[in-house]
Amino acid sequence: MAIRMTAVLAASCLFLAGLPAYAADAPTDPQIAHIAYTAGVVDIDAAKLALKKAHNKDVKAFAKDMLRDHEAVNKQALALVKKLKVTPENNPTSKALTKEGESERAKLSKLHGAAFDKAYVANEVAFHKQVNGALKTLLIPSAHNPQLKDLLQTGLKIFEGHEEHAEHVQSELK
Amino acid sequence: MSSRNSSKAFRVSSHWVVGLAAALALGAAALPAEAATVTVTIDKLVFSPATITAKVGDTVEWVNKDVIAHTATVKGGWDVMIPAKKSGSIVLKKAGSVDYYCRFHPNMKGHITVSP
C-alpha cells in the first residue's frame, strides 16, 4: 500500500514537473479537459503505430482495444465540453504529454518484432500508471464541474482496467 | 442427480425442507422448468448486480450502458462480447459457481452461481 501510494505521488509529481507555471495552483477545468483529451490522443497514436508494427496477436488485440476505448472516451469528452460550453485550454502539461508521446513513438518506430512488442506494452503500463496517478491525485480533485469530474472518474476506471490489461499482456510476453 | 444435490445443499436444514426440496426437484424434472432470463446491467464499468444465481438453461443477459465495449469472460470457459450500448447473452449450460471478468478491463468482476 505504501509503495503504491509512493508510486502514485511520484506519478503526479512527474505531471506537476511539466507544469511549472501552475505548480502552486490546481489546473482549471478547461486545462483539465485538455490534459485528459491529450493523454487519450497520445495513447491513440501509440496504438495506431502498434497496429502497424506489432507481431504478437495479444499485443495487436490490446492495441485495437486501446484505439477503440480511447476514441470512445475522447468522443464523449468532446461532447461534454461542447455541452458545457467549455473550450479546452492548452497548457504546459498537455504540451509535455504530446512531446513525451512523440519521442516515445520515435523510439518505438526504430524497433521491430518482439522487441517492439515488449517496448510498446512496457510503455503502455508506464503511461497508464502515470495518467491514472495524475487523475487520482491532481485532475479529479481539481475538477470543479460535477459532470467533468464524473467523466474523469469513469475514465480512471477504464484506464485502471487498461493498466491491468497491459500488465497481463506484459506478463504473457515474458 | 438433482435431488441428491438438493439434499446435500439442504443438509443443515430440517427434514421437512429436504423433503420439500426433493419434491420441488422432482416436479422440476417432470415438467420442464421454464427458463428464466437474468439481467445484469453494466454502468460505468460495474456489473450490477455483481453476484447472481441462476439455473442451468437460464439465460444471462448483460445490458451495456457504457460507450465502450466489454466482455463477460470465465477463465478457461465461456466468453461473451458485449458491444458498447448493446447487450450480450449466454445460456448457462453447466452447474457450478464461476467468477467472470471483462477481458478489456480486468478490474470489472462478477460472479454467477448456477444450480442444476
Question: How would you summarize what this structure contains?
Answer:
The complex is a heterodimer of chains A (174) and B (116). In chain A, 83% of the residues lie in helices and 0% in strands.
Description:
The complex is a heterodimer of chains A (174) and B (116). Chain A has 174 residues and is an all-alpha fold. Chain A has a single domain (2-15, 40-173), classed as Ferritin, core subunit, four-helix bundle (Ferritin, Up-down Bundle), CATH 1.20.1260. Chain A is 83% helix and 0% strand. Chain A starts with a helix and ends with a helix. Chain B has 116 residues and is α/β, with parallel strands linked by helices. Chain B folds into two domains: 1-33, no CATH class; 37-115, Cupredoxins -  blue copper proteins (Immunoglobulin-like, Sandwich). Chain B has helices at residues 2-9, 15-30, and strands at 37-43, 46-48, 51-55, 59-64, 70-73, 79-82, 87-91, 96-101, 109-115. The termini of chain B are close together. Chain A binds chain B through residues 65, 68-69, 72-73, 75-76, 153-154, 157-158, 160-162, 164-165, 168, and chain B through 44-45, 66-69, 84, 102-108.
Please describe the topology of this protein.
The complex is a heterodimer of chains A (174) and B (116).
Chain A: H1 2-17, H2 29-53, H3 57-84, H4 92-109, H5 113-142, H6 146-173
Helix pairs in contact in A: 1-5, 2-3, 2-4, 2-5, 3-6, 5-6
Chain B: H1 2-9, H2 15-30, E1 37-43, E2 46-48, E3 51-55, E4 59-64, E5 70-73, E6 79-82, E7 87-91, E8 96-101, E9 109-115
Parallel strand pairs in B: 1-4, 3-9
Antiparallel strand pairs in B: 1-2, 4-7, 5-6, 8-9
